[in-house]
Amino acid sequence: MRAIVLDEHGGPEVLRIREVPAPQPGPQEVAVDVRAAGVNRADLLQREGRYPAPEPRPAHEIPGLEMAGCVAAVGPLVSRFRVGDRVAGLLPGGGYAQRVVSHADLLFEVPANLGWAEAAAVPEVFLTAYDALVLQAGMGAGDRLLVHAAASGVGTAAVQLGRWAGAQVYGTAGSAAKCLAAEGLGAHAVVEMGDRSRDFAAILDEHVGGHGFDVVLDLVGASYLDRNLKALAPRGRLITLGLVGGVRAEIDLGQLLSRRLTVMGSNLRGRSLGEKASLTAVFAGRVLPALAAGRLRPIVGTVLPWTRAAEAHRLLQADAVIGKVVLEVQ
């Protein structure tokens, strides 16, 4: 089969397609012929050598943490899927390839209303956002939610999930067009943060009557930490998923004590098979029906053939896309 293999680390130009042996499914695994693969910031870090694949390392380093495609073969202990089924799911890597192998418990059926590019845009952003907001931060009806980078892949999923769960959703985004996109998905107000030093907490304060936010979903990191804490309501929860704004910051512990705040972080790739399987099952039972009914939808900003993977990485690096970047695999 063909795959995009990282024989070296560096800029987008190191993304090259070459022949490698096709993987074979184990007893509880499913082989999938990939039709589309989502592009994520973790892929950019891996390409640069800053986000290695988890152990055990594969023989060939192939990026790609999510995909959608057709079942090509199943292991002898797999009963949930059959050859020809349309599936999507999370991967520890390997999505930029014509075929992948995944444990059956990490896959879910693709709803009939989603095309391949839309299906490939679901796993990372919707599982990440649902896990962070609902399962970890405990967001519920009536909560005030602030989503940073609200027009990004995870951001567009989080805005929709917030409204779907009955929260009052607000956001920040990097341009006027991105603010409009997030508002079109249901955010009440979105602050333009082309200048990341703006005091979004003060700007949004009037929209929430000075009460602060119950949950803040942060995809920026250190540079937003102090303002995030100030934006939280008493007993508010801050969950950080991204670090594009830095990894180190000072924290005023007095704020945590006096207002009983919670600060947490999360990612998916490093979790155990059992944890990811449990999350996939919860997602398939609670969120997938809403995607199938059209109440939630993946936002795909750009679809490119995988021969243009370098261009896809440059677009994501430049924050030039609203929603997801997806590669069509041929």
Describe the structure.
With 330 residues, the chain is of the alpha/beta class. The chain has 2 domains: 2-122 and 298-328, Quinone Oxidoreductase, Chain A, domain 1, CATH 3.90.180.10; 125-265, Rossmann fold, CATH 3.40.50. It has 11 helices and 15 strands. Strands 3, 4, 5, 6, 7, 14 and 15 form a 7-stranded mixed β-sheet that branches. Strands 10-9-8-11-12-13 form a 6-stranded parallel β-sheet. Helix 11 (309-317) links the parallel strand 14 (300-305) and strand 15 (324-328). The longest helix has 14 residues, at 123-136. The chain is globular and about 60 Å long. The relative contact order is 0.16. The mean pLDDT is 96.
The helix-strand sequence is: EEEHEEEEHHEHEHEHEHEHEHHEHE
CATH architecture of the largest domain: Alpha-Beta Complex
Give the overall form. globular
Which ranges are low-confidence, i.e. pLDDT below 50, for 5 or more consecutive residues?
none
Total domain count: 2
Give me the Rg, rounded: 20 Å
- CATH superfamily name of the largest domain? Medium-chain alcohol dehydrogenases, catalytic domain
% residues in beta strands: 25-35%
Distance between the termini: 11 Å
The helicity comes to: 25-40%
| Main β-sheet description | 7 strands, mixed
Q: In CATH's first tier, which class of the largest domain applies? A: Alpha Beta
Structural class: alpha/beta
Average pLDDT confidence is 96
CATH topology of the largest domain: Quinone Oxidoreductase, Chain A, domain 1
Total count of helical runs of at least 4 residues: 11
Instruction: Give me the count of strands.
Output: 15
